[in-house]
Amino acid sequence: MFKKPMRKLLGSALIAATMLTGASAKAEVSFEGQTITVIIPFKEGGGTSRVFRFFQPYLSKYLPGNPVVQLQNIPGGGTIKGANFFHNNQNPDGTFLFATSSSVNIQQATGNELAEFDLSQYRPVMSLATSTHWFTRSDLASGPNDISGLQARELSLFPFKTASSADLFHLWIYDKLGINARPIPGLSTSAGFQSFLRGELQMASQGTSGFLGKVVPEIEAGNAVQFMTLGVLQADGSVARPSYSPDAITFPEMYEKTQGMPLEGEDLEAFKVIAANWGPASKGLFLPSDTPQDIVDAWRDAIRKMTEDPQFIADAPGNIGPFPVVIGEPVEEIFANAVNLSDASKAQFNDALKKYGMTFRIP
Amino acid sequence: MEMFIAALIELFQPSHFPYLMLGTLLGLTLGILPGLGGTSGLAILLPFVYTFEPGVALAMMIGALAPTTTSDTFPAVLLGIPGTAGSQATVLDGHPMAKRGEAARALSAAFLASLTGGLFGALILSISIVFARPIIMAFGFGEQFLLILLALLMVGALTGANFLKGIASCFVGLVIGTIGLAEITGDPRFTFGTLYLRDGFPLIVMGLGLFAVPEIIGLLQSRSTIAEGGKLKIGWLDGLRDVKDNWFLVLRCSSLGVMVGALPGLGGTVVDWIAYSHAKQTVKNPEKLGTGDIRGVIAPESANNAKEGGALIPTILFGIPGSGNKVLLLGGLILVGIEPGIEMVTTQLDVTYLIIWSLAVANVIGAGLCIFLARPMAQLTRVPFYILAPVLIALIFFATYNASRDWIDFFSLMAFGAVGVVFKAFGWSRPALLIGFFLASKIELLSYQANAAYGWSFLTRTGSLILIALALATVVFLIRQKGSEVGESSRRDQKGQLIFTGLLALFPAAMIVAISGLDPRANVFPIALSGALLVMLFTIAVLQAMRLNPASSATVNRIAPLRIMSRNIFENEGTLGDHLRAYLILPVFFGLVMLLGFPIAAVALINGFVLMHDRSKYIVSLAISAAVLIILWTLSGALTLQYPAGVIANIISLPWWLGGAY
């Protein structure tokens, strides 16, 4: 009766890409008898809570001294409340951590004046590389990877949380593809998807886990068509198709297909900001900035052991999705790309905001 | 049918049933404390879900969720504290009954109504889940917008003795509801650069301030027990009989609950108020509601439990949580390998039925236990005020803090507590304010969404036409009802009431000034509401001023519309000065919390308050404060809850839960 969901696509896709951290933990670090607190700037039951709840028993198992791991949810202020709380209570003994999602990045990336935190100061432990998938109604496309129907429309509606969220990237994406789009504000991902199914919206997008769980069945039923993925940003700067959606073309491919020229220059730079935020920087785990190296190593080591646990490998696709876990220093650069915007990128996004009549601007 | 039987068999398996009961007990125990309940129960269970067998985890989660809207009736009726949004309307009649010594009757009626509603919800759910999808799919932005307008109109029945003051109260709520980030543009409105106000005020904290604080103030002033004279009537069986006599009301409100829970847009949060308004519009002698009428308990209780079943429909079919606690349930379902979607009513129908009927059975167990507990729990209303009041203050502070774990919410609690005290004293409608607040952002957003997706054509869709017809019927009904009301204005403290009307006008005026520079999409809605509110307040002030003077009062009496509008324009309950003196205990306790941290402050308050009244009662005060401390400590561990730290946490080293460092 209770089958773990069959996700044939995913079974093999989880690659614990252990971009290794070098030294394994030194013997003297031990959290025996201590309680680890992970601050989560979201409500219980959200995606980030779910990922770290799944990690919780493995962290206890593989951290030296088998400490108790507790998750403390501090929601509010569009993640700023929890993030500021972490920033102002940093205790660098390895028992106080911060779990993030792209909503946290965006507050820093867009220079929210209430944000006191700075992700690029902290010591990254790991991140989870997800992707984003765009889809439209099947009657508006001749098949997968086709947006000619959308481009021909006078107006296509899409769900939009608010301009000061990571959703602002959608404005830039649709603008670059030459779709006459109009954002419908105040719609969460799930409310937006329901509205899409009702036929009120012509296009929408979801993160990979939502896409596989909710959208793929609609695609199989013939109601929706995927037309694009974000793609996966590689270390050399190229963009690959995600292993779990190999047939869908990526945004740079779609750009070249529809605009007749490759994505390059400032456009490419702006895209890389989006690709980092919605890709490898969409979930992260951080230690406070002054944490000693041996404690940081102990944490990264525990995460590496977790990703090698056969039980973890078996259960992870169903619980957190088919995403590679990235460990250690590479995470630092990923987040730097996600939160530190060049003036050219800011101008790109502000242009898009202006075109769509938004009042919000990135300072 | 096969699936149906398979699910029934599974339900009573030893691998399922005992865990369902265990979960129910957990949910029930937590639900008795205001501010906790099913959501907290699920939050406690979630970390263990990985280690349990999926079937066991499912049973425990549903068990924990089911009795939330049942056991929160205890604090609502007995203490006047709405612990969850779903029990706010129950306070209106339930608590006055407790004051008359009829707590047992109110409780047993509430539980039986709740039980019936829950079972009815499960029944409707089992039938409708199979073909609910097209109905929900037809319910677009336009229908959602009209549904919310309809809800707002229905609440017109809750305006209190003076219709004009009631509508103005609703508009005060609507304007408060626009505080925070603008729905369409994301501009901050009336936030004064603070992080706190960007999210707006939390509904549960407003409910506690508006309803629980005035009750505690009242208890302090009565210097007695909640049940006047300390005497209790038995009345336990009467309550059960009341439900039987009002079976049709139960049925109507349960249906309302299922529908509101299942349809997108409104959400289940205000279903208790809608059911209450429905009762007020349809029962005989509606003026008795609000004074401790059993029908005012039965209506919201039968709706809010039925809603749980309804809210499962979108959760199971679309993976879209129909109410707050369904967000956590959804997370839990996915953890045990249940993916919401259309398969839930095709190949996985047995799982769906198992969920539905587990919910129903957990409801029966939960409500049954509650009925059993109604009489002993009613004894709480005989506890003298000097013991009960400090505990209640600690409880509402706890419930406030647990809502969003932010001690700044204490300011909101105290502010809305003060508003509640004055509104109650001067006859302004607190329910209307609360509903207006809750619906404001939805109205603004959905009007924009409906217009963007449909233009005006949404008005001609079938669902829209039905809703418009219902709305018109409600308006006609309200006009007839309000036109026929009688009543006499209070003669006391009239100048004070006039001054308050003037002070109230400062709020919309300040709102207009604060947001006038924003983009029109961000400020048209709040400015229009504020403008309308100013006009209403001006009218009320003029009518009150005219009533002050005998000559102009005679003019008012001669002109029929003025006479109707100014009916009960002055109202007075108690003396505001005395209320405000008793209110001072809240800032005093807040000061203690800032100094000592919440748990130690609660101990200090309880001991201090009890001993100031009776020095010989130190054993009682020590025992109660020790019990409070143990409960707070247990909850801290179970919910990963760190209480607000006081200044002393900087001086001496305290454990984590008392506010110590990480």
Short description:
The complex is a heterodimer of chains A (363) and B (662). With 363 residues, chain A is of the alpha/beta class.
Overview of this protein structure:
The complex is a heterodimer of chains A (363) and B (662). Chain A is an alpha/beta fold and 363 residues long. Chain A has 2 domains: 143 residues, Bordetella uptake gene, domain 1 (D-Maltodextrin-Binding Protein, domain 2); 147 residues, D-Maltodextrin-Binding Protein, domain 2 (3-Layer(aba) Sandwich). The radius of gyration of chain A is 20 Å and the shape is globular. The relative contact order of chain A is 0.20. The N terminus of chain A is likely disordered. In chain B, 58% of the residues are buried. Chain B is an all-alpha fold.
Helix and strand topology:
The complex is a heterodimer of chains A (363) and B (662).
Chain A: E1 35-40, H1 47-62, E2 68-73, H2 80-88, E3 96-101, H3 102-109, E4 123-128, E5 132-137, H4 148-152, E6 156-160, H5 168-177, E7 181-185, H6 189-198, E8 203-207, H7 208-220, E9 224-229, E10 232-233, E11 239-240, H8 251-259, H9 265-278, E12 283-287, H10 293-308, H11 310-319, E13 325-327, H12 329-339, H13 343-355
Chain B: H1 2-11, H2 17-32, H3 38-49, H4 54-65, H5 68-71, H6 73-79, H7 88-99, H8 103-128, H9 132-137, H10 141-154, H11 163-177, E1 180-181, E2 188-189, H12 203-222, H13 236-245, H14 247-262, H15 271-282, H16 295-318, H17 324-335, H18 349-378, H19 385-404, H20 409-426, H21 430-454, H22 462-483, H23 494-515, H24 520-548, H25 550-558, H26 560-565, H27 576-583, H28 585-596, H29 598-613, H30 618-639, H31 648-651
Antiparallel strand pairs in B: 1-2
